[in-house]
Design brief:
Shape: flat
Mean pLDDT: 92
Number of strands: 4
Largest sheet: 2 strands, antiparallel
Strand content: 5-15%
Number of helices: 4
Helix content: over 70%
Structural class: mainly alpha
Low-confidence stretches: none
Distance between the termini: 34 Å
Length: 116
């Protein structure tokens, strides 16, 4: 698809929309307060990391399929790390929190060595 003489890639567009939506949910929290979804009050800022995790996971697949291994690895590392951190907070699991921090630190260190 072309828009204003630029090629729009559906995969990258989906990643950008998910990451943008995560940021928007976080920023809108003070303005909206809890939002009623099916009779349950949901905090938009609490949903934001879930959407961000989905964006990173989709990004890992998209970049891998396009042949950008390092970008795919970066997205995958952060999807796992944020997912573990969110899961740890949601369930009260200290193990998931430690795993999330470990993946984040080890993954970031590995990515730095690969980028050189």
């Amino acid at each position: 698809m072309r828009v204003a003489s630029h090629t729009v890639e559906p995969g990258r567009t989906a990643v950008a929309l998910l990451v943008g939506l995560a940021g928007l949910l976080f920023v809108l929290q003070p303005l909206t307060g809890p939002v009623d979804v099916g009779g349950v009050a949901i905090q938009p800022a609490a949903v934001s990391p879930l959407v961000l995790t989905a964006g990173f996971a989709v990004g890992a697949v998209v970049f891998y399929r396009q042949g950008y291994g390092l970008f795919a690895a970066a997205h995958g590392v952060f999807a796992v790390a944020i997912g573990a951190l969110v899961g740890g907070v949601a369930t009260g699991s200290e193990l998931l929190l430690v795993v999330g921090v470990g993946v984040l630190v080890a993954g970031a260190g590995w990515l730095v060595t690969q980028a050189r």
